[in-house]
Amino acid sequence: MPPKPKVLLKKPGAGPAAETYAEVWLDAKGVVRASVPELQKVWESQGIVGVGSHGRLYPKDGQKFLDELPVMYKSAYLWAEPA
Question: Has this prediction a pTM greater than 0.70?
Answer without folding.
Answer: yes
